[in-house]
Amino acid sequence: MRISQLSDATGVPVPTLKFYLREGLLHPGEQTSRTQARYDESHAERVRLIRALSEAGGLSLARVRQVLDALGDPPSSRHHLLGAAQDALTPDGTTCDPEWSAFARGFVDRRGWQIRDDEPLIDLLGGQLHALAEAGIEVDDGAPLMAWADAAESIADADLSTVPDDPAAALRQVVVGTVLTDPVLATLRRLAQQHRSATLFEEK
Amino acid sequence: MRISQLSDATGVPVPTLKFYLREGLLHPGEQTSRTQARYDESHAERVRLIRALSEAGGLSLARVRQVLDALGDPPSSRHHLLGAAQDALTPDGTTCDPEWSAFARGFVDRRGWQIRDDEPLIDLLGGQLHALAEAGIEVDDGAPLMAWADAAESIADADLSTVPDDPAAALRQVVVGTVLTDPVLATLRRLAQQHRSATLFEEK
């Protein structure tokens, strides 16, 4: 299809498509003349992915590019593939107070979670828990943190039970699923809070 | 305490504190001379809250102000209070395709969740599910969505079980807890995915 048809198929304006091509986010079409190129379904799918990550997922174009780079070269084992997807999604150079880093590591160890030693998510978690504590919300191995970890395990099971066998499709699903479903979970949590609050607190 | 001591107590530089005062995010201190004012623990607590919401929570200062306005005038029932907190956190003017709005409403109804008719979170959820579907991830009443809703209910129970009786403290906990714990949940989910993936997929 021509670029105008790619635009119709994806709902993305031609100038934006040209921007994606210039920035290398979208692979070039097959040149059919000096000024025209032909695009196919792989281009439409890539455009929809870029939109999903940047619009719905709220990722910067620089991070979209990192994610696309990871998607372009998927590792062959599904476990390493998950690592690659998560690396592309985790902010670089996260550091936190060593005490909180140790707390986060201790927490996942006590849960029995197998997490590699240099996993940057540990420091990310440490920093997030530190922020909670600074805001006056108690953080220990007690109720809320354990309940969240239980919930995270159920969600991870649901996430992984639907990962396809094909590595490229699997990576795409993990990345897109993670970026796009974090907001869904946040919204469901608020709705569930309203429902429970209506049951628990509302005056009759 | 003087502004320099407030700065020491909170770790926030004096020029930033002056900015918060100018912008009305921080209530004025008690004027002790033409150029000096005295601050107390209520100022330190407010500064920590602003930092938590803007730095760790990633809220814009405009939204921080909305949240602070809601905190300044807490409703008396804990159920309405939750609504006020959530209103301050929900982006304004969210709209979505009516078909997806209806799907989201149908979903919460089928879950038996009591949600008010004009709840803006319904359209927010509809838009998020629409984005998932556009990215090629199947959305129906089946496995992932139901598993997420189950997890959301457990999390909401944990959230609400620790809400204090005092309305102002309760509102603060709900708002801060929601803003600061969404990222914690997202990180725990990734860690749980890694753990499950190591168990399920890793080559021996």
Describe the protein in words.
- The structure is a homodimer of 204-residue chains.
- Chain A has 204 residues and is mainly alpha-helical.
- The first copy, chain A, has one domain.
- In chain A, strands 1-2 form a two-stranded antiparallel sheet.
- In chain A, helix 4 runs antiparallel to helix 5, helix 5 packs across helix 9 and helix 6 crosses helix 7.
- The radius of gyration of chain A is 21 Å and the shape is elongated.
- The first copy, chain A, starts with a helix and ends with a helix.
- The model of chain A has no long low-confidence stretch (mean pLDDT 82).
Strand content of chain A: under 5%
Largest sheet of chain A: 2 strands, antiparallel
**Radius of gyration computed on alpha carbons of chain A:** 21 Å
Poorly predicted regions of chain A are: none
The greatest interface here is:
A-B, 84 and 84 residues
What is the chains' assembly state? Answer: homodimer
Give the rounded overall mean pLDDT of chain A: 82
Order of helices and strands of chain A: HHEEHHHHHHH
Count of structural domains of chain A: 1
List keywords for this structure.
homodimer; elongated; mainly alpha; two-stranded antiparallel sheet; 204 residues
List the helices and strands and how they pair.
The structure is a homodimer of 204-residue chains.
Chain A: H1 3-10, H2 14-22, E1 30-31, E2 37-38, H3 41-56, H4 61-72, H5 78-89, H6 98-111, H7 120-134, H8 143-161, H9 167-201
Antiparallel strand pairs in A: 1-2
Helix pairs in contact in A: 4-5, 5-9, 6-7
